[in-house]
Amino acid sequence: MNQTQLPLDDRGLAYGDGLFETVLVRDGQPQLWEYHLARLRRGCQVLGMVPPPEAELNHLPAQLSDGLRVLKLIYTRGSGGRGYAPPVSAEPRLVWQSSDFAPDRQRWQGVSVRLCRTRLARQPLLAGIKHMARLENVLARGEWQDSRVAEGLMMDIEGLVVEATSMNVFWSPQASTALPVFTPPLDQCGVAGTLRQALMDSAMVEEHSLTAGRLAHCAALWVGNSVQGIWPVTRLEDADGRELGRWQVGQLHRDFQHQAHLALGYSDR
């Protein structure tokens, strides 16, 4: 099942018919590993694919060198079938690669983000899973080249905030340091990040809807994922670069970031 490369007739290449996971690995130990495996299993269930053997997956992180690494897993339905019709007896393929990694600690101090014009279509069947067909995110990320802007916030067709192009969104409506922090529901579209899920399971984060028009009124705003960690948002701008909101990083920002980074093994204090 494990391959070093994908053939040209692979359905993952042809149709995005597959799943992927991006895992932070520290000294051979994958962070939030059970959450990544759970999301992969759920994605396989949704797509009607047999999940890869966990014994095979569990063997991969230990093969990596010491230090911080990023392990990317790609799991496709394999080859076969006529057109979009999936093969009756599919033979899935698992490919993986790893690379050295260092988090962008400068962005832990605060980042500028912008609103994206590209909207996310609603498709409850695929909501939450990390499938390979991510063209909406690709188009949204292509909307700016300014390195000063770290991320772009994406809304759905109803104008509700869903996620950033490669991160989840978190916010607090009040300046109190009391938790929980909020995050948008992902029952219609978006990717349910593993760090997001871990924080929800620890009762630090709850789901609440948020319109784009209310973003500037949040007391605190963050974006984050299980590889880069949590970035406090210090400036929000619209799709044309006009400022919509500005924040100073305070104790609330730091407390939430610190608790989230504990789940990833990061030290930010």
TrEMBL record:
Its EC number is 4.1.3.38. One of its GO terms (cellular component) is cytosol. Its cofactor is pyridoxal 5'-phosphate. GO terms for biological process: 4-aminobenzoate biosynthetic process; folic acid biosynthetic process. Coiled coil: none annotated. GO terms for molecular function: 4-amino-4-deoxychorismate lyase activity; pyridoxal phosphate binding. Keywords: Folate biosynthesis, Lyase, Pyridoxal phosphate. InterPro entries: Aminodeoxychorismate_lyase_IV (IPR017824), Aminotrans_IV (IPR001544), Aminotransferase-like (IPR036038), BCAT-like_C (IPR043132), BCAT-like_N (IPR043131), Class-IV_PLP-Dep_Aminotrnsfr (IPR050571). It catalyses: 4-amino-4-deoxychorismate = 4-aminobenzoate + pyruvate + H(+). It is an enzyme of class 4 (lyase). Pathway: Cofactor biosynthesis; tetrahydrofolate biosynthesis; 4-aminobenzoate from chorismate: step 2/2. PANTHER family: AMINO-ACID AMINOTRANSFERASE, AMINODEOXYCHORISMATE LYASE. Belongs to the class-IV pyridoxal-phosphate-dependent aminotransferase family. Homodimer. This is Aminodeoxychorismate lyase. It comes from Halomonas huangheensis.
